[in-house]
Amino acid sequence: MDELIEALKNAMKSEIDSVTIYSEAALRGEADVAHFFASRAEEEKRHYNWLLSYYKELIGGRMPSTNFAAEIQTLHHRSPIFSQEFLTRVASDRHVSAAVSSAVLLELNATQHYQKMADLTKDPHLKAFFHSMSEWEMRHYEELLKIQEESRHFWFEEQNFEPF
């Protein structure tokens, strides 16, 4: 149980880091870029709140009563279409571009962490929740990786290479 509680704390920290990165990118971005990152920040806040609920129940000596895995399954995640304009806007702002690079790593780490947590727990309810979270974060990872790869071409066109 101690290992699961520690893993939950680490997961909550990771979610807060994601909220921070996405919120900052939303503030820096424009139009659809700002909207994309703001929606990702809201999703990560939801994840954090789910984890916090589980954490509070576990440290209170109870097994979680809420079935967030079922809620996750009801959410329809549609991968956005990234237009050339979207990718150019990402590439033209170094802060947003750096946020994408950082978020790729955070999402990959989250995917692996939630899978490890699913493997650790014996409770089928928690196992389903962490497995769902791993799948959800994998979709985020794949989207961000696509943005990173497809905006790279525009990044070289948009940057004014100058000495620091």
Task: Write a compact overview of the structure shown.
By secondary structure, the protein is an all-alpha fold.
Q: Residue ranges: pLDDT <50 for 5 or more in a row?
A: none
Tally of DSSP β-strands:
0
Q: What radius of gyration results from the CA coordinates?
A: 17 Å
**Distance between the ends:** 50 Å
Total count of helical runs of at least 4 residues = 6
What is the 3D shape? Answer: elongated
The topology string of helices and strands comes to HHHHHH
CATH superfamily: Ferritin, core subunit, four-helix bundle
The largest sheet, given as strand count, sense and whether it forms a barrel, is:
none
CATH fold category name: Ferritin
Tell me which CATH architecture applies here: Up-down Bundle
> What share of residues are in beta strands?
under 5%
The pLDDT mean sits at: 84
Fraction in helix: over 70%
Number of domains: 1
